[in-house]
From TrEMBL:
It is a multi-pass membrane protein. This is Uncharacterized protein. Gene3D superfamilies: 1.20.1530.20. The keyword Lyase does not apply. It is found in: Membrane. Keywords: Ion transport, Membrane, Potassium, Potassium transport, Transmembrane, Transmembrane helix, Transport. Its main location: membrane. GO terms for molecular function: antiporter activity. One of its GO terms (biological process) is potassium ion transport. It comes from the Eukaryota.
Length: 789
């Protein structure tokens, strides 16, 4: 056996060493190891298991120590790799026998880590929604493209600046070009991992980052293939055409053969039942086969696995099943091995011996990061995102992670980049992965801002010809009829139809984990007791208004503390403008209070605090209900002023377009309000009341609207007015006006029982009010850019 110098794992050098044939896979057991302890290291499987255990234990031990400081698991795994590498632990002979045995150790850990990373890339493709990239908003597309191009431009300028030698080595030129491209990437999986670590993946900020990252990821893939194709064309046009044809046929087979087959699997699987194991195994084998095929065609194996992952239908039942089955094992074991093993290849000695490359690499990393950060910050800030959120967004889009580490590791294997550059890259990625999460946590509060919106999703800013998206939540069967009656009053029309998302919320009991079910219109049963009958009423409402109303029904079974998460996440995901919540109090037939549910009340309060759109709480006293197709329906609105009242009036105007609805707008004004002192809120109140006062047909010639002004100089007068008008209407709409003090409500806040309803809404929910009128309390969306700080 020829002795070799201290080796680095995964290095493509040539050495001579002895291999025992046949290969020794598994040991004879514990007794042999007790007699000869070093014998275990001559068997492949025990050696691999020992390596995995050491990597797992060391990385998680470091993570447990550094987690209180805000250090991520990914950064801890890199630190573990640096410690286990040749400069530190690699100097110990006992350790070298475990990790650096050329005939066994290096090759085994290398093969396992690359296999695991291939599965990780496949699962990344499964989780990535291609439609997100193609259906992205203009903002996401612009940010995604800018985040790719701006660092490339800076890299080109930097390359020209440092090109002091006109006859620069082609190897160095290639290294700089490749390094710039890697530093310019915005990886979807890396951004998703960062957002998950920060627990803001469902926030508006997180969704914008994911959408922009998906655009950037696909743009990078397209750009790399264009560069590769141009190089092939310069060498051999025939070879370039062959590769284009093979790639086209491969993608065609994926999306027009395998994808329909997977939809057939989904169709064959009954709702609520798991996907059969044989299909899961077959899909995994096809993913590995795709990686082998692209490797055979002289392309990166990861591309085949990633593209097949994109072809897998995302979400339940197939995509979610693959994620649930494999993600924990792949991320927890295989990915940890890959990251740590890659970091073990760092060689600080090469950095010291090659200062020019190290200098250029450091400057390149810093300037390309700065270019990406500044471009994403400016693009988001000019799109009316608050200053601190724009800073956080720019940092998130500049994050580096396992994908960039894999790129550098792969090109290091192929000797495209030097050991010095690779070592600098690993340290740069470590600094990036350590500092960025800390800064984002400082700039962005995930608790209070998780569902905060950057877009105006409310009724006032809804275009006249836009569809009205409403999330209707129900807890009990009694909520259904009142909810459908209210939805019918929103007057869906051909030019402005309604899209209803009916969400049945069930408290988690006798079950280990939450369940979320997307119902189908033609299903005949459900596994959730009582849910189907409630959902069926909404589908019947859709049938009665065919072409005007679209219903999508869901059931969420979750703990009470997380119910508001289901509501806000769906509202954000479906981009709804209005959420309707049932009040927590139920009335009996005779008008007395039958029951109160504090769980429902807590859910309502949480939604009001965090909702990404406008919210309405429906108080159904169970009286004065009329059939949906009744010839008349009397609606009243009490208007005191303010954004919540303006939102309520906007909804009332929409209802007034229905010929069945007679709308009465009662404006409560104080004597002092008649002075000529106007603020911005008052000007907006006057503007929105203008067409109601004139009743000039702007809202429609068939609108039956009456405008009334009543003077109220105290809270007691307002309470008397409410008691006097309550019995004249089938539905009364009021604004929540939480925290807003006025002369009309003076003295009432001290007696308020339900702050979530506001002062006026609380009066209608009081047991002292002898009325059966239904009430809708409206709160306008808390728009985050109202104060840009």
């Amino acid at each position: 056996m020829v002795e070799a110098p201290s080796p680095l794992p995964h290095q493509n050098d040539t050495y001579e060493f002895c291999i025992i044939l046949p290969p020794r896979i598994n040991s004879a057991g514990i007794w042999e190891n007790l007699a000869y302890p070093s014998t275990m290291l001559t068997y492949s499987l025990p050696l691999l298991e020992m390596q995995i255990v050491m990597i797992f234990v060391s990385s998680h031990l470091i993570y447990a120590i550094l987690k209180p400081l805000g250090i991520t698991l990914f950064a801890s795994q890199i630190i573990a790799g640096l410690i286990l590498g040749p400069p530190i632990m690699g100097k110990l002979n006992a350790f070298r026998n475990i990790f650096y045995r050329r005939e066994l150790g290096v090759e085994m850990i290398d093969a396992v880590s690359v296999f695991g990373f291939t599965l990780f890339i496949f699962l990344t493709g499964v989780k990535m929604d291609v439609k997100m990239a193609f259906n992205s908003t203009k903002k996401s597309v612009v940010i995604g493209i800018i985040s790719l191009l701006s660092p490339i431009v800076v890299g080109i300028v930097l390359h020209k600046t440092f090109n002091e030698h006109k006859r620069m080595n082609d190897v160095i030129k290639t290294e700089r070009i490749v390094g710039t491209l890697i530093e310019s990437t915005t990886s979807f999986s890396v951004i998703a991992c960062v957002l998950t670590e920060l627990k803001i993946i469902n926030s508006e900020l997180g969704r914008l980052a994911l959408s922009s990252a998906s655009v950037g990821d696909l743009s990078t893939l397209f750009l790399v293939h264009i560069i590769s194709l141009s190089q092939d064309w310069a060498t051999s046009p025939l070879l370039a055409l062959q590769r284009v044809l093979v790639a086209f046929l491969f993608i065609t087979v994926l999306f027009f053969v395998f994808r329909p087959m997977m939809f057939w699997i989904i169709k064959k699987t009954p709702e609520g039942e798991p996907i059969e194991e044989v299909y899961i195994v077959a899909i995994l084998m096809v993913a590995i086969g795709c990686a082998i095929f692209t490797h055979w065609t002289q392309q990166a194996p990861l591309i085949g696995a990633f593209l097949f992952g994109l072809a897998v239908p995302d979400g339940p039942p197939l995509g979610s099943t693959l994620i649930n089955k494999f993600e924990c094992f792949v991320n927890g074991i295989f990915l940890a091995v890959y990251i740590t093993a890659s970091a073990m290849r760092v060689n600080p000695r090469k950095m010291v011996s090659n200062p020019p490359r190290v200098k250029f690499s450091i400057i390149s990393f810093f300037l390309t990061f700065l270019a990406k950060f500044i471009s994403c910050f400016i693009a988001s800030f000019v799109s009316f995102m608050p200053f601190r959120d724009s800073l956080a967004f720019g940092l998130i889009m500049s994050s580096k992670g396992v994908v960039e580490l894999a790129y550098f590791s792969t090109f290091r294997d192929n000797w495209v980049i030097s050991e010095a550059t690779f070592s600098v890259a690993v340290f740069a990625i470590l600094v990036n992965a350590t500092v960025i999460p800390l800064l984002v946590r400082f700039l962005y509060d995930p608790v209070s801002r998780k569902y905060a919106g950057y877009k105006r999703r409310n009724l006032m800013h809804l275009k006249p010809d836009a569809e009205l998206r409403v999330l209707a939540c129900i807890h009990w069967p009694e909520n259904v009829s009142a909810m459908i009656d209210l939805l019918d009053l929103t007057c869906p029309m051909t030019e402005s139809p309604s899209v209803i998302y009916a969400l049945h919320l069930i408290e988690l009991m006798a079950r280990d984990s939450p369940v979320f079910i997307a119902h189908h219109k033609h299903e005949t049963n459900t596994n959730v007791g009582g849910s189907f009958e409630d959902i069926l009423a909404f589908y019947q409402y859709e049938q009665n208004n065919w072409g005007l109303v679209t219903v999508n029904a869901f059931t969420a079974i979750s703990p009470p503390k997380l119910m508001h998460e289901d509501i806000c996440s769906m509202a954000l995901d479906k981009q709804t403008s209005f959420i309707i919540l049932p009040f927590h109090r139920k009335w009996s037939v005779n008008g007395s209070v039958e029951a109160e549910n504090n769980v429902v009340r807590n859910v309502n309060c949480s939604v009001l605090d965090r909702s990404p759109c406008s919210v309405g709480i429906l108080i159904d006293r169970g009286g004065r209900r009329k059939p949906m197709k009744s010839s008349s329906y009397s609606v009243g609105i009490l208007f005191l002023g303010g954004k919540d009242d303006r939102e309520a009036l906007t909804l009332a105007k929409r209802m007034a377009r229905d010929p069945r609805v007679k709308l009465t707008v009662i404006r409560l004004i104080a004597y002092q309000d008649r002075r000529d002192v106007l603020d911005w809120d008052t000007i907006m109140d006057i503007e929105i009341l203008k067409d109601v006062k004139q009743n000039n047909g702007v809202l429609g010639n068939d609108c039956d609207i009456m405008y009334v002004e009543q003077v109220s100089d105290s809270g007691s007068q307002t309470a008397k007015i409410i008691r006097s008008v309550a019995d004249y209407y089938d539905l009364i709409i009021v604004g929540r006006r939480y925290g807003v003090e006025s002369i009309q409500s003076m003295g009432l806040s001290e007696w308020s029982e339900f702050p979530e309803l506001g002062i006026i809404g609380d009066l209608f929910a009081s047991t002292d009010l002898d009325s059966r009128v239904s009430v809708l309390v409206v709160q306008q969306q808390h728009y985050i850019s109202e104060s840009r700080h």
